[in-house]
Amino acid sequence: MKICFATNNKKKIEEVKSALGPDFTIVSLEEIGCHEELPETGDTLHHNAFQKARYVREHYGVDCFADDTGLEVEALDGEPGVYSGRYAGEPRSDSSNIELLLENMKGQSNRKAKFKTVIALVLEGKEYAFEGIAEGEIIHELIGSGGFGYDPIFRPDDYDKTFAQLSMEEKNEISHRGKAVKALADFLK
Q: For residue 79, what are the contacts with CB-CB under 8 A and spacing of at least 6?
């Protein structure tokens, strides 16, 4: 099955291809000729994911899925949440986002956090949603060189490594995106 994943983030595409396996051919936005920035103006992950998937379906005529992910930190009342990718403003920068988050966490003893992913699928005129959550904590410094985003400061529950220290296979087993993609794959199969 060939389907568009509404992103050009190569690391995300790699993660999803690995999780979905060989039964699926995943194409990026670039591969379908979409070079514009997709709309992401919602105030929930669900709204943003569907906004992107619907845009691709309407403008490019291909079946598509899109995700939106947020890191919700308990001590910061759920921030950065839906604004995780642009937490420190424009231009978007993982290092600036991490720096701001660690600054805002100074003096906080409650380090609990969770990643949440919503995948919106627009397939043959119907819409479906899949979710995944990974519980964990924000550590005090960056550890690991893998992954992307907040991975170097997020240690999942029951692990002594950050997401940035796990192999892609290990991360896909337990991560928010891995869980949402598994639900998507189970549905598509």
A: 72, 73, 87, 104
